[in-house]
Amino acid sequence: MHAIQLTHTSSATRSPPAASAPPLPASLVLLLATGAGLAVASLYYSQPMLGVLGADLGASDRALGLVPTLTQLGYALGILLLAPLGDRYDRRRIILAKAAVLSAALLLGGAAHTIGTLLIASLVTGLAATLAQDIVPAAATLAPEAHRGKVVGTVMTGLLLGILLSRVVSGFVAEHFGWRTVFVAAAASVALLGAAMWRSLPRFEPTTQLSYAALLGSLAGLWNRHGALRRATLAQGLLSVGFSAFWSTLAVMLHGAPFHLGSSVAGAFGLAGAAGAVAAPLAGRIADRRGPETVTRMGAGLSVVAFAAMALSPLLSAHGRLWLLGASAVAFDLGIQAALVAHQTIVYGIEPGARSRLNAVLFVGMFVGMAFGAALGSVLFAEWGWLAVTALASSAAAGALIVRRWPAART
Fold first, then answer.
1. Residue 6: which of 96, 156, 138 has the closest Cα?
2. Are residues 135 and 102 in contact, defined by beta-carbon separation less than 8 angstroms?
3. By the 8 A CB rule, do 8 and 134 touch?
4. Distance (Å, rounded) from C-alpha 392 to C-alpha 398?
5. How many CB atoms within 10 Å of residue 384?
6. I need a labelling partner for 387 at 20 to 30 A (CA). Which of 5, 7, 23, 363 fits?
């Protein structure tokens, strides 16, 4: 069951020549993709349910805004403090431990009867959901060099589909069976995932012997040494501000006048995430032909246009506004996910022996942006309405485009 044994030196992986290395079994690739999808889905289950959830717990709009904020902040903290451990310890054990904690946190969320308990569960959920960021480097390590791009692309597609299906499924289940059912079912799925990973994953040898303190300290060294890492992190973080501001306020906005729509409709907007799933392999092919820098600029530019277009909402009927929201969501999701794939391509090529740490820096910036977008978006929506959220998202995306067009030598 654990016959595959990975052997590394402290700086690189010793592997057989690509020509003689067989591809990974399709079942293992599917398990890794499913695991990444289920883990990251835990971050988004609550978003379409905020309107229903708030009424049940008697929470204000501002308090509800803390639910996605703490989830994203927990994810950022988990990536910063836990993801680098994948370079130092057996990644299999880390994945199994996080799966157990994530399942427990989701159960706590489903059992919550106060907003305080739900906020605690949200923070822990974010911390433990970082197992997705252990699964992607695990896939890159397991895959033979000749098939690495295909394997990582498949796992990333699973991750993006997890984002897509989480909103759709949670919105539908919450409306028909109650929001607590969503959390309980999610906890069960993660527990089953952990059991499957325990049976199927091999053990991983560490790629470094640095102490935990030195490991975390090396993150600052990577940040200082690599301008490409700084640009990628800042640009993706800014794009994430707009992304999170939109999704963290959409359900509350649709729940009120003039729409008065339930969580299933808010969740259905998650189908726009299909654009992101399509963007992953397409962005990879364009990056191979024209370079990832071109893809980052295209993605940021498309996001600016999509967010800015939502400012036309007051000119349209309620029906027309829904269509505009849907079209804009498709466009900015396509742009943001394409930019993410291109940024990962850039970052993973910097230092192969530090992939977990490089990945940690990129995703910390991304989810700090998401936490900031959720918090500020909720405040802006409560004080000034949807147009203020649109202005925030447009400005953040424009900032990302400026970062990508700024001369690299000045970053």
1. 138
2. no
3. no
4. 10
5. 11
6. 363
Q: What ranges make up the beta strands (E) of 242-392?
A: none
pTM: 0.72
State both tokens at 79. 């990536």
Q: Tell me the pLDDT tens digit for each residue of 100-116.
A: 999 999 999 999 999 99
Structure tokens that stand for 365 in this block: 């910036």
In this prediction, residue 45 carries a pLDDT of: 92
Cα–Cα distance, 236 to 363 (Å, whole number): 9
Reply yes or no on whether the pLDDT at 357 is more than 60. Answer: yes
How far, in Å, CA of 334 to CA of 330, rounded? Answer: 6
Cα(122)–Cα(104) distance, rounded to whole angstroms? 11
Give the three-class secondary structure for 57: helix
Q: Tokens 């299909």 map to which residue?
A: 274
Strand, helix or coil for residue 204:
coil
- CA angle 251/252/254 to nearest 5° reads 65
> In the prediction, which pLDDT does 198 show?
94
Q: Among 407, 227, 402, which Cα is nearest to 301's?
A: 402
What was the pLDDT predicted at 184?
96
Q: Kindly report which listed range (171-185, 260-274, 314-328, 391-405) carries the lowest average pLDDT score.
A: 260-274
Poorest-confidence range of 20-24, 143-147, 269-273, 274-278? Answer: 274-278
Comparing C-alpha atoms, which of 171, 186, 74 is closest to residue 122? 74
Q: In which residue are the tokens 């796992």 written?
A: 155
Burial (Cβ within 10 Å: 0-12, 13-18, ≥19) of residue 1: exposed
Strand partners of residue 5: 203
Query: What's the sign of the alpha-carbon dihedral 299, 301, 304, 305?
Result: negative
Query: Helix H segments across 112-262?
Result: 115-128, 132-142, 148-177, 179-200, 212-225, 227-255
d(CA 164, CA 41) in angstroms, rounded, equals 8
- Name the one residue in this structure whose structure tokens are 């927990």: 74
Which residues does 2 contact at the CB level (< 8 Å), separation at least 6? 201, 202, 203
